[in-house]
Amino acid sequence: MTLHYTAGNNINAQGTYAPAAAGFNLADVSSVDELNSLPANVKGMVYLDQGDGVTQSFIDALKPYVGNSKVYAFYLKDEPDPTGQYNTLVTAANLKAESDYIHASFPGAKTFITMMNMGSSENPTFANTYNPANTHIDLFGIDPYPVRSDMSTVDYSMIDKAVTAAESAGISADHIVPVFQTFGGGNWADDSGGHYVMPTAAQEQTMLAHWAAAVPNPAFDYAYAWGSQNSDTALESSSALQSVFLQHNTGTSTTAGGTTGSTTGSTTGSSGGGTTSGTGSTGGTTSGSSSGTGTTAGSGGTTTGSTSGSSSGGSTSTTSDGGHHHHHQHHHLDFSQLTTGAAVTSSPAVATSTTPTAAATASGAADATTDVGTHLIDMIGHHTEHHAWHL
User: What's the CA gap between 359 and 377, in Å, rounded?
Assistant: First the structure.
């Protein structure tokens, strides 16, 4: 059975596991107290941020969790850098030592990292980085985010390309964790000169359908992200996307007229008041596809199939503080690369282009200098810090 994980702000001020309301059952935790507070049907993935091998710090971080049956996995490191060009070098050998230690000390527990794309969103590559053979890591998060301000339509093929690149690098589908885009706006630039846009419900359903076709039965999937940071919009504040994920995660969804049943088969519906629309056969795990037409809650318009969203929400000045979700501050990048620009926070109808806000963009050249510039923007823009909440 696939588990469902989302990152950031999982435990609210009342001590409750908030994502349970949208059917999530694998929690983002960083302490034993958080782990022990989880409902009986929810497991925890412990964020370690460790990539130096089996050091005393690594051993000490694990000790509190020994024998705790609530542990499902350990999140070793978010997008470790196998080159040392963008952050501290993390070797496959160090990750292998950590993973082997955990497997010996926590029988049945999984190890997990998200992967740094060493290419671009359009031409991803994970070659000569990490895979199960050289790290003994169980699960690898692959995180293309296709809903952007700088594209006239959403390029869902980014998902398919990323999966193909992972498989080419030795990460088979049974080791891949799909990472779904559930954020937009804020002060982060993407790797093609625009900003990430919060997906509509219909766009989210299309992404889920692409992922279901590419990786049909993952050990768990990952909605990035529940918690909001650095002025972005995330899943915790979107009732429309929470409805999509409730259906995806449990096979039911709350609608204006009640609750729908299993997602198996083909279902068509219109949205309203936080519900979603779309048509698709999900096989019981993924809701909807891009083939349907219907209104999307909160959009003020009609979304047809896989059309992308447009920018709204006005102007937001880009700042150098904070980190986006689990992806930014841990890399300690030079945030002077960011400049002021219009930030997209929602996507009602059709995407419009935005004046590039990053200092460097991909030129299409196949040289190492271009790759460094492209990836610097990409990491600043959205995924250099999956666990900045835990700093």
Answer: 8
